[in-house]
Design brief:
About 0% of the residues lie in helices and about 50% in strands. By secondary structure, it is an all-beta fold.
Length: about 120
């Protein structure tokens, strides 16, 4: 089993920044494609960003140019740098892992999930 633990969420004003971290353990982190998803109250879970084993990245249109996904395989950690935050970014953010051949934005194709970290952006 791959265990994932997110941290770094909190309350921030619009225009501010946060960096989320996702610490992995239990399996070889570098073997997995990693993604960030979020779920706002009353809404469906949505894709935010993903990064493959090889470094290919993909972002939701709503966060392009503001969020950056990165990983440090030596530290078994995934990051999400979030800049220029907006109130509509308020959600619980989850990291997830899968071992597919190609990068996927579909949450159902991810095998392992963290417990989530709350991000609240005030206007």
């Amino acid at each position: 089993q791959l265990q994932l633990v997110e941290s770094g969420g909190g309350l921030v004003q619009a225009g501010g920044s946060l960096r989320l971290s996702c610490a992995a353990s239990g399996r070889t982190f570098s073997n997995y494609n990693m993604g960030w998803f979020r779920q706002a109250p009353g809404k469906e879970r949505e894709f935010v960003a993903a990064r493959t084993r090889g470094g290919f990245t993909n972002y939701a249109d709503s966060v392009k140019g503001r969020f950056t996904i990165s990983r440090d395989n030596a530290k078994n950690t995934l990051y999400l740098q979030m800049n220029s935050l907006k109130p509509e970014d308020t959600a619980v953010y989850y990291c997830a892992a899968e071992r597919g051949v190609v990068l996927t934005t579909m949450g159902d194709e991810y095998d392992y999930w963290g417990q989530g970290t709350q991000v609240t952006v005030s206007s």
